[in-house]
């Protein structure tokens, strides 16, 4: 950081290519979002690294995904290579120095970083439907499943919880349909198959506990620099939908959990959404609208979202309009679509009379970009041809031993390592099914031996979930009128389960009904 409150992006060039002036991103506009675009190999990842370094140095925590593993070097000391020193000289960056940054590595698979998990309940029906590419009918069933679980306190933590609930719904489709809306066995079946596919794709690693605490990605290191969370996404990218849904879930969690702060001096967190086209491509209209809404509103929670993608056309116009800070690397302009992208990109900038924006975009060198940031009262600055500053940490990947060492020293070392499988919908429903089966067996026995105490029939009429009081009641002879089999309704069953003291964050919220936010994740 050169100037308090300003992040150095690079140095702009005059028409004769000589140095013009330093280009900054104002920290107080850091929450006004941004966009980094450019064809492959033009310098996007390095630009992302530079911005992450600058935000961290200014005390702002950063979250970013590492698609190719080449961003991990931000955790290691940079080396004075010739091309870096030359770049520093070109932009008259006298203070250029090498350092490493405080990094926490994360990984949905728990291999290249601390495990990241979310519970099914936290993810919510909207995002889960997106993840499974569910049809409307299937999404309807998912909504009902969450309604049953939310209202009744059946904790949906991992995939097997949802499987168990779907099983239950399949078995009681008729009853549930009359209470909640139509549930077809076919939709339940296809959802179950969808869950199996998800499981095979590795999502089983992701759903469960301990779930990621948002506070852990908002840490500041003891030296005052913002911690940079780097999500290992190379393996995750093989399942692009999981990748995009996961990042979207993170955004919605941030949005639901963080308090309003208006326009702070500096952002509370900066979130880089790399390969952002995955978020928008083929996304249903409802989801796009919600994403647009979250991006718009999250700003006042102090979160800056920076989309990184090859083509500015990848980002819907409504979202594009909200991205105040722009770094446009070179684009090719051979095909009509490419030409359109160049035109679109150029049109979003405040023109500079010194050069033609369209032409400049196609002529930029590696690590060079058209830059425009918010200034003054929040208006975009005139676009400048800018040589991006060289990073202070290493360009390229770190070694595995270096990574392990950093993970061992991490403030969350050990916290997310092991799965916790506490009692949740799966166990509750299994216990319930067992009780029903036991009671059935007992009833059969009682019928075969009519002289024996008939209390088993009472238990039979109360296939509760093991609530102590309920068990007591069940132990007593059946009340008049309740003898014989009465299948309790799903909601009754769920309400009974709510009485249990399941020590789950989800279950703890029973009493006050669960509230879901814009993207369907739980509100706290
Ligand atoms: N600001 C910079 N200063 C010095 N060198 C740079 C800078 N930006 C990019 N480079 C050089 O260009 C190379 C490619 O940059 P980078 O990896 O950021 O491209 P990219 O757009 O992310 O590519 P891809 O689309 O393939 O991921 C870097 O390895 C580095 O050598
Ligand atoms: Mg890259």
Could you give a quick summary of the protein structure above?
With 524 residues, the chain is α/β, with parallel strands linked by helices. 41% of the residues lie in helices and 13% in strands. It contains 18 helices and 14 strands.
Structural account:
The protein is of the alpha/beta class. The chain contains 18 helices and 14 strands. The chain has helices spanning 44-57, 82-90, 120-132, 136-152, 159-171, 173-180, 185-206, 240-257, 277-280, 285-298, 317-320, 336-347, 357-363, 400-409, 425-448, 455-461, 468-475, 490-499, and strands spanning 6-13, 19-26, 34-37, 62-66, 103-107, 114-115, 228-232, 269-274, 303-309, 325-328, 368-372, 374-375, 379-380, 384-388. The strands form 2 sheets. Strands 2-1-14-11-10-3-9-8-4-7-5-6 form a 12-stranded mixed β-sheet, sandwiched between helices. Helix 3 (120-132) runs antiparallel to helix 4 (136-152), helix 15 runs antiparallel to helix 16 and helix 16 packs antiparallel against helix 17. Adenosine-5'-triphosphate is lined by residues 38, 40-46, 70, 83-84, 87, 366-367, 388, 390, 395.
List keywords for this structure.
single chain; 524 residues; alpha/beta; twelve-stranded mixed sheet; two-stranded antiparallel ribbon; 14 strands; 41% helix; elongated; binds adenosine-5'-triphosphate; binds magnesium ion; DNA helicase HerA-like ATPase; HerA_C; T4SS_component; P-loop_NTPase
């Amino acid at each position: 950081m050169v100037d308090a409150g300003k992040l150095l992006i690079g140095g702009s060039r005059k028409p004769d290519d000589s140095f013009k002036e330093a280009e900054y991103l104002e920290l107080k506009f850091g929450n006004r979002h941004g966009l980094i675009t450019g064809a492959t190999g033009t310098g996007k990842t390095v630009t992302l690294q530079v911005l992450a370094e600058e935000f961290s140095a200014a005390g702002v925590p950063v979250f970013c995904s590492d698609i190719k593993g080449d961003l991990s070097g931000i955790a290691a000391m940079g080396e004075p290579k010739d091309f870096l020193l030359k770049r520093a000289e070109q932009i008259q960056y006298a203070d250029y120095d090498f350092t490493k940054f405080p990094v926490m590595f994360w990984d949905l698979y728990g291999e290249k970083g601390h495990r990241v998990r979310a519970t099914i309940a936290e993810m919510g029906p909207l995002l889960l439907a997106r993840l499974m590419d569910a049809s409307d009918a299937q999404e309807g069933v998912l909504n009902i499943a969450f309604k049953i679980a939310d209202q009744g306190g059946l904790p949906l933590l991992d995939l097997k919880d949802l499987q168990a609930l779907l099983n239950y719904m399949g078995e009681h489709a008729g009853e549930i349909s009359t209470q909640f809306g139509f549930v077809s066995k076919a939709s339940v079946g296809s959802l179950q198959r969808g869950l199996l596919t998800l499981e095979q794709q590795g999502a089983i690693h992701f759903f469960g506990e301990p779930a990621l605490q948002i506070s852990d990605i908002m840490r500041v290191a003891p030296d005052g620099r913002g911690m940079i969370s780097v999500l290992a996404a190379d393996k995750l990218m093989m399942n692009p939908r999981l990748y995009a849904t996961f990042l979207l879930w993170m955004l919605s969690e941030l949005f639901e959990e963080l308090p309003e702060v208006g326009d702070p001096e500096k952002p509370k967190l900066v979130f880089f959404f790399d390969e952002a086209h995955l978020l928008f491509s083929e996304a249903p209209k409802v989801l796009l609208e919600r994403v647009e809404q979250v991006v718009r509103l999250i700003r006042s929670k102090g979160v800056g979202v920076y989309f990184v993608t090859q083509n500015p056309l990848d980002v819907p116009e409504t979202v594009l309009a909200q991205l105040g800070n722009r770094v446009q690397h070179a684009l090719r302009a051979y095909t009509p679509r490419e030409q359109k992208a160049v035109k679109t990109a150029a049109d979003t900038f405040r023109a500079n009379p010194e050069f033609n924006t369209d032409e400049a975009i196609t002529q930029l060198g590696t690590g060079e970009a058209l830059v425009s940031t918010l200034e003054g009262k929040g208006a975009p600055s005139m676009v400048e041809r800018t040589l991006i500053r060289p990073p202070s940490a290493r360009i390229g990947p770190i070694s595995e031993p270096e990574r392990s060492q950093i993970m061992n020293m991490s403030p969350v070392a050990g916290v997310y390592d092991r799965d916790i499988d506490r009692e949740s919908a799966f166990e509750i429903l299994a216990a319930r099914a067992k009780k029903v089966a036991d009671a059935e067996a007992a009833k059969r026995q009682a019928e075969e031996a009519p002289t024996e105490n008939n209390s088993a029939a009472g238990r039979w009429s109360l296939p509760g979930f093991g609530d102590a009081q309920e068990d007591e009641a069940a132990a007593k002879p059946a009340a008049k009128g309740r003898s014989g089999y009465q299948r309790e309704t799903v909601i009754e069953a769920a309400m009974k389960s709510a009485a249990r003291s399941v020590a789950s964050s989800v279950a703890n919220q029973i009493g006050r009904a669960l509230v879901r936010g814009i993207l369907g994740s739980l509100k706290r």
